[in-house]
Amino acid sequence: MQEIRKTARERMKGYCRVCPVCDGRACAGEVPGMGGIGTGASFRANIDALAGVRFNMRLIHDAVEPDTRTTVMGNLLEIPVLAAPIGGVSFNMGGRITEEEYISAVLGGCAEKGTLGCTGDGVPPFIHEAGFSTIRTLYGKGIPFIKPWEEQELYQKLEMAANSGTEMAGMDIDAAGLVTLRLMGRPVSPKPLPKLRQIIENTPLKFILKGIMTPDQAKLAVDSGAAAIVVSNHGGRVLDHTPGVAEVLPAVSKAVNGQIAVLADGGVRTGGDVLKMIALGADAAMIGRPFSVAAVGGLKEGVISYLETLKTELIQAMVLTGCKDISSADPSILYGFEGKGFEGKGDFAS
Length: 350
Hints:
12 helices
């Protein structure tokens, strides 16, 4: 991973510094690029929120060889991790590899290690075209995310997603504030509940809503017919001064109450961070920027190496907290959460 990160630092020069700690401080305001919008406060909040969650270390138990597998939306994952949708290699990551090489690396590496990668959307069209093409090549092993376009473009891309062979598609509704797309004549917009229901009813795919940050919005997502939500502030790239994902996740998970899957995306860097998100109420974690670094720095082998590192770290954290499997990761493994009557996902205090 050191060599992969070194290569990524060279290839992403001027777009990402590949800092020893990816916390948004050095790249605040660098959008396009890999930074957070404005002051970078939302990016930093994701990191700080997870850093503030601490483990209870327990070693008197029989969790010697933890089982890291879990099932999300009918898909068996070797570890509870998905690569988050990120696109735009040329204007966000330096363009030293092509969009096709990037997407192939992320999705191919995830498929080989028994999990799933997601693809992004945007302008120009080769971003989504590379995603759909790679998913088709991998026989549907990938999840395309589509921006909240208005009418014709949205339905066209949902049809393209269905034709790629995937069983799932997502909408990063948190991209609705991207004014630049509207200025380019490609408007995105929030979706009222009736419209959202119509969209979901008119696709045969399991539908994922990304960008849910409050309990009331989580309940609306359930009402819309979505199969899953992603608790996410878009990596801190759309609205300055939001809370961190780990801060809001317990209350959002409680609002969902196990009715649909809950994914969490924001500041996850290590296997320990993954375990924290699971204990806070997620069914799986999404990871963005570290996968980009791994893909740019080492292509498919870089992604595989990062996933292997995550699994090793996750197993270590599970052993040291007494988790024999993913379902064992509940609030009791977190310092300050023990002894408060929590009963697992859907039963957290806000």
